[in-house]
Write a structure and sequence with these properties.
binds iron/sulfur cluster; two-stranded antiparallel sheet; alpha/beta; 49% helix; 391 residues; 10 strands; globular
Length: 391
C-alpha cells in the first residue's frame, strides 16, 4: 500500500501502459503450485466506496499534472518536459504520482483492475466502479482484468454483457493447461470443462479474452498431454489471444519442493520448444492470435494470427530445432542474457563473439570448480539460473 492510493503487486506484460486500480486484494484461490505472487496474503474485496476514493485521488493527481501543462504552455498535453517538471516538484516523486503522470504521458487510455480475480466483486458493484472510473476519466478506452476460469464459468453471459456495457473490455485468464490430471497436480482448482464454459461465457458476452498458457508445466511426464489437451480446450473456446508464458520454478513456489524431491522434472528449453510445436499443430478451427510477450519465452518470434500464420510460427521452431546442439546452446545463452530477440540476431558478429566468450568463461569456471570439462548439463543449469533475472 502507498499513502495516496492502493496498488497491487502485478499486471500482465501487455498492461505496461495501464493505470492500475485495485478492486480486490490478492487471490481468492492462492493454491497453485507454480505461483508465488500472493502466498501468505489474504484475499479481500474492497468496497466500491473505497475504490472510488482511490479514483478521486488519481483524478486529483491527474489534475495537478494537467494544470502544470497549461501553466507551461502545453495546453493540457502531458509531454516528457511536463513530466520532468512535475517530478522535480517536492512531494511528487511517490510511486503513485509517477504512475498517474506516466499513465497520462502514455495517453491515459488503458486501465487494469487488480488483483488476481477482480470478477469476484459483485456484478452491480463492479458496474458501479467501472461507470465511476469512466465518468472521471472520459479518455479511457480499454479496461481489463484478471479472472479465474471457474469464476467465469459461474457468471452468466448477461452479467458479463452488463460489465462490457459499463466498460470492461478484456479479461485475462490464467488457463496454464487444459489437461485435467495436470490441473489437479498443480492445484489449479478448475477443470478443463469449467475452463471451456468460463472461456465461452466471456467470448459470448463480447468481452475480449486472453488465455495464458504455460509451456513446460506438464514436466517431462506429461508434456505431450499438456500440449494436446490445452490446445483442445482452446479449440472449443476460440479466445481472441493465446499468450505464452514459459514455466520457471522459483524457490518461493510450492512446486520447488516437488522439483527437489523428484516429483516434477521441468523439461529442458529444447523439449519445451518441441512441446509448443505440438501445441500449435493441435490448435485447429480457431481465429486466435498467439502472443509471445514474456521474456521467459525462448522464441519470441513464435507469434501470429491463426490460422494463416501457423506455418510461419512452425517454421521458426523447425529452424531452431534443426540447428546443431552448439548453435542452439549459443542462442539460449544469448537469449537468457537478453542479447538476442530473434534467431537472426545470432548472426550479428559482435553479439556472437560476446556469447562465445561467455560460454568459454562458464566452461572454464566449471572445469576449475569441479575438475571436469564444462559439460552441457552444467551449462544448462547456468543458463536456467539466468532466467531468475527476469522474474
Ligand atoms: S489463481 Fe492465479 S493468482 Fe491465484 S494462485 Fe493460481 S496462478 Fe496464482
Amino acid at each position: 500500500m502507498n499513502d495516496v492510493f492502493e496498488m497491487g503487486p502485478i499486471r500482465p506484460p501487455s498492461e505496461a501502459q495501464s493505470l492500475l486500480i485495485r478492486v480486490t486484494r490478492n487471490c481468492p484461490w492462492n493454491k497453485c503450485e507454480f505461483c508465488h505472487t500472493y502466498k501468505g496474503e489474504t484475499f479481500s474485496i474492497r468496497p466500491p466506496e473505497e475504490v472510488k476514493k482511490d479514483i478521486d485521488q488519481i483524478r486529483a493527481i491527474a489534475e495537478e499534472v494537467r494544470e502544470l501543462s497549461w501553466k507551461t504552455g502545453e495546453a493540457g498535453q502531458v509531454s516528457r518536459a511536463v513530466l520532468q517538471r512535475y517530478f522535480a516538484r517536492p512531494g511528487q516523486q511517490s510511486h503513485a504520482h509517477q504512475s498517474v503522470a506516466g499513465w497520462l504521458y502514455d495517453g491515459g487510455t488503458q486501465v487494469f483492475l487488480q488483483d488476481g480475480n477482480s470478477l469476484m466483486v459483485k456484478t452491480s458493484d463492479l458496474v458501479e466502479i467501472l461507470q465511476y472510473l469512466k465518468t472521471q476519466f472520459p479518455s479511457i478506452r480499454r479496461i481489463t482484468s484478471y479472472a479465474r476460469a471457474r469464476t467465469m464459468s459461474r457468471k452468466t453471459v448477461e452479467e458479463l454483457k452488463e460489465l462490457k456495457k459499463a466498460g470492461l473490455s478484456r479479461i485475462h485468464i490464467g488457463m496454464e493447461t487444459g489437461y485435467d490430471p495436470l490441473l489437479q497436480f498443480m492445484k489449479k482448482g478448475v477443470t478443463a470443462e469449467e475452463q471451456v464454459r468460463g472461456g465461452r461465457n466471456v467470448v459470448e458476452s463480447g468481452i475480449s479474452l486472453s488465455e495464458y498458457v504455460m509451456p513446460g508445466l506438464g514436466g517431462e511426464r506429461w508434456w505431450r498431454e499438456h500440449a494436446v489437451e490445452t490446445a483442445r480446450v482452446l479449440n472449443q473456446i476460440n479466445p481472441d489471444y493465446i499468450r505464452l508464458r514459459t514455466l520457471y520454478v522459483r524457490k518461493n513456489m510450492p512446486l520447488y519442493e516437488k522439483v527437489a524431491n523428484g516429483e516434477f522434472v521441468r523439461p529442458s528449453d529444447d523439449q519445451i520448444i518441441a512441446e509448443i510445436r505440438l501445441f500449435l499443430e493441435t490448435l485447429d478451427g480457431i481465429r486466435s492470435t498467439v502472443v509471445s510477450d514474456h521474456i521467459l519465452n525462448l522464441l519470441e518470434e513464435v507469434q501470429g494470427k491463426l490460422p494463416e500464420e501457423k506455418g510461419k510460427m512452425l517454421k521458426v521452431i523447425d529452424r531452431y530445432l534443426a540447428w546443431p546442439p552448439e548453435e542452439r546452446l549459443r542462442f539460449r545463452v544469448g537469449r537468457r542474457l537478453g542479447y538476442l530477440r530473434s534467431l537472426d540476431d545470432l548472426q550479428d558478429p559482435a553479439l556472437s563473439s560476446r556469447i562465445d566468450h561467455i560460454i568459454g568463461e562458464v566452461r572454464r569456471s566449471i572445469q576449475e570448480a569441479q575438475g571436469k570439462d564444462g559439460e552441457d548439463p552444467e551449462i544448462e543449469k547456468e543458463i536456467y539460473g539466468l532466467m531468475e533475472n527476469y522474474i
